[in-house]
């Protein structure tokens, strides 16, 4: 009788999961998209968030300073191996058009007294990256816009060339406004609009669960009622996705395209940087038609 009584007195095992399991979202992509409504994440965000103190600047969520456990590892990689930095938050503007027209107008916003210019022979061939300071058109040495780096696409024999200009996100709007003014570019008819996302009934249920979990754990923000897409957000912290991302000149044919977050940028530091690149990148075989 005592044994039977002890069996009945045993407490039933709790069916509730642990706190970590309760906080785990069913659809990580939907939850990550919800958290990127105001600040875009870089592709290396998850790695940085575990090892760095994150800050929200210029429309991005960036790693500001490493935690105490990361200092030795970063220094060791930089001194003896290879340290990689994600600079994808830097903005990229692409200029396409005739080489003579590009050089003619770009000469108005730079000066040879500050260093290399866009028409330097070593940079014009596309073999080297150049850096210079930009000023407002015909205003040197006053009204400096800021430092930029640039690289030309190697020429294929035609008079049309491509030029990529990289700048800090804080300088993007001023430089873009000045480039559109000197090239007399207006908005093109094509406006980038995100593709509609088709989801199944099961994914809709997962989204509802994610939203409900978010409301329980955190106060609802101003945009809490908006639908959360289930695909990864591909955007730019310095540009509205519903705004135009390309501008063309009707007189010269020069086109300016915003390639921010479309062309990623990384920096390698350390004695083994070249070895890492040679092992990672494989040359493609040439195919002749």
From TrEMBL:
GO biological process, one term: tRNA 5'-leader removal
InterPro entries the UniProt entry points to: Pop1 (IPR039182), Pop1_N (IPR009723)
Pop1 N-terminal domain boundaries: 4-97
Entry's Gene Ontology cellular component terms: nucleolar ribonuclease P complex; ribonuclease MRP complex
Residue stretches spanning the membrane: none
Protein name, UniProt field: POP1 protein
Gene name tied to this protein: Pop1
């Amino acid at each position: 009788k005592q044994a039977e009584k002890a069996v009945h007195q045993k407490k039933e095992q709790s069916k509730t999961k642990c706190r970590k399991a309760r906080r785990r979202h069913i659809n990580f992509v939907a939850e990550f998209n919800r958290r990127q409504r105001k600040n875009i994440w870089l592709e290396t965000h998850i790695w940085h968030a575990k090892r760095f103190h994150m800050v929200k600047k210029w429309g991005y969520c960036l790693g500001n300073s490493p935690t105490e456990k990361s200092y030795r590892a970063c220094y060791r990689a930089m001194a003896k191996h290879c340290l990689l930095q994600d600079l994808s938050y830097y903005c990229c503007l692409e200029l396409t058009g005739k080489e003579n027209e590009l050089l003619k107008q770009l000469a108005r916003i730079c000066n040879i007294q500050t260093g290399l210019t866009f028409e330097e022979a070593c940079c014009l061939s596309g073999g080297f990256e150049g850096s210079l300071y930009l000023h407002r058109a015909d205003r040197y040495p006053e009204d400096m816009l800021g430092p930029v780096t640039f690289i030309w696409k190697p020429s294929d024999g035609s008079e049309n060339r491509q030029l990529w200009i990289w700048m800090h996100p804080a300088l993007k709007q001023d430089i873009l406004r000045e480039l559109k003014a000197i090239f007399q570019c207006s908005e093109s008819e094509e406006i980038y609009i995100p593709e509609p996302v088709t989801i199944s009934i099961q994914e809709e249920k997962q989204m509802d669960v994610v939203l409900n979990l978010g409301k329980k754990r955190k106060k609802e923000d101003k945009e809490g009622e908006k639908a959360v897409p289930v695909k990864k957000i591909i955007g730019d912290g310095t540009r509205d996705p519903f705004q135009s991302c390309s501008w063309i000149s009707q007189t010269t044919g020069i086109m300016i395209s915003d390639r921010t977050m479309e062309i990623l940028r990384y920096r390698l530091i350390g004695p083994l940087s070249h070895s890492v690149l040679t092992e990672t990148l494989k040359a493609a075989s040439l195919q002749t038609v």
